[in-house]
């Protein structure tokens, strides 16, 4: 049974695909805040994967991220999600992202577990 304080770890190597790039080109050749956010959500999702049933799926409800230091191409990024609480069907996690001892980012994620059919109704395109 999962309990507050449990942790899950997601590891990835920083690649050029993680760089901050917008329509006008490369901003800087380091891991972007956007890419860190994806990694943080995945780390929290590791709990969702353990909790959800076959007919359920998770959906993000919130994300906060404090991007503190760079992570460079080729470096190994480790995102440690800590389960803070489960409120009903919502899974709340804090996270720390590090490269070795260097703290890269901190924050929180929220994901809600819903029945797949309910989620399909919520996400269905609206007719004008």
TrEMBL record:
It comes from the Bacteria. Residues 14-117 form the Fluoroacetyl-CoA-specific thioesterase-like domain. Pfam families: FlK (PF22636). This is Fluoroacetyl-CoA-specific thioesterase-like domain-containing protein.
């Amino acid at each position: 049974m999962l309990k507050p304080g449990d942790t899950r770890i997601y590891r990835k190597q920083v690649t050029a695909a993680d760089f901050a790039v917008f329509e006008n080109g490369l901003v800087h050749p380091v891991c972007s805040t956007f890419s860190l956010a994806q990694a943080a959500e995945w780390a929290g999702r590791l709990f969702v994967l353990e909790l959800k049933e076959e007919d359920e799926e998770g959906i993000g409800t919130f994300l906060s991220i404090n991007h503190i230091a760079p992570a460079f191409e080729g470096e190994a990024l480790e995102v440690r999600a800590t389960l803070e609480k489960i409120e009903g069907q919502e899974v709340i996690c804090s996270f720390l992202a590090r490269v070795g001892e260097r703290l890269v980012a901190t924050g929180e994620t929220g994901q809600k577990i819903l029945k797949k059919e309910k989620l399909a109704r919520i996400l269905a395109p609206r007719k004008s």
